[in-house]
What we know:
Helix 2 (27-51) crosses helix 7 (182-224), helix 3 (56-105) packs across helix 8 and helix 8 (229-239) runs antiparallel to helix 9. This protein has a domain at 27-130 and 144-169. The two termini are 43 Å apart. The protein is mainly alpha-helical. The longest helix has 52 residues, at 298-349. Helix content is 83%, strand content 0%.
Amino acid sequence: MQGRAIVRVVVIVIVAVDTLALIYVLRKPLTWLVLATFLAVALSGPVNYLDRRMPRGVAIAVVYLCLLAVPVALAALVIPPLVREGNELISNVPGYAADVQEFVKESDTLRSIEEDYGITENLEAQAKTLPTKIGDAASALGGIGVGLVNSLFALVTILILAAFMLGGGKSWINQALALQPRERAVRLRRVLDRMAGAVGGYVVGALAVAFIAGTLAFVVLTILGVPFRGPLAVIVGLFSLIPLVGATIAAIIVGLVTLFTNFPTATIVWTVWAIVYQQLENNLLQPQIHKRTVHIQPIVVLVAVLFGGTLLGVIGAVLAIPAAASIQIALAEWWSWREGRDGAAEGADAPDEEDAAPAPDEEDAASGPTSDGPRSAEPVEPA
């Protein structure tokens, strides 16, 4: 018996190690599968709504067209002004360097530093050679292009997987639940429906946070007179979809633009506003919105985002909140089932209960109320 137990432990350890190694090797497609599942659940709401009025395939196509139209519209709004202003900035850099040199000459302290180190002369020389270095930058962008192609391949794969899940996911779930006892199937379906609602609520909450961030940024940039405040507000809204760090990245991008608009007043005002708003968004706005849409406590939101971001980076931070909500729903349902099972055992022993069903055997008691009893349609409340 001792040797058999040792063999069993060794086999369990080997299987666990092999499983972890397999997960590590397949981490990329598994990540795609998780993202596709999240996307399919998030899009199931509009797809199910349109499914009542048209074939499901057409509904999926319409939702996908709307989904793909969003980044195209945002790119059309943001990219042309950025390219135009980028070219203008490159052509004006020598003039900016000359202005800096003139400012240094008017200051005694800066003039003495200039005489010792020749900073402005080097700056002006580098500014004059900047247009000639665009070709080098283009060659460097070629390597980035390879990464973009790989990212596009991953995106297309995720979209295709999500489309298959939207098309056949409901039938797959029904077939899987049909293999379970009726009481367990009812509970599993309730858990899955609540998880889907949590993911949909998270998407709605994230879009609400992004809309608020973009709108407030547009107002502040309008007051400061910063050009291209529309595209910049869109950038702020998009980066706000990334919990915790998104607002900081967007604030830095906008701050760089304010350097060329009413410096230093606009830069200082924007920096102060960005710091204050980021604290409000991370600690008040985002947790409270997700508390109402995903129905989890603000402290759970913060902890989940911190853990998810540490484990999986940006993807982990984005998926942390719906994952935490799903875990909370599963645990609550498990606890309800556990209390219901205890209540069923106590109710079976009650001598004064009318029409009491015969006491279940040990196997039935371990698996909860049976589906053949008179109260199998709904869970038994705890005594």
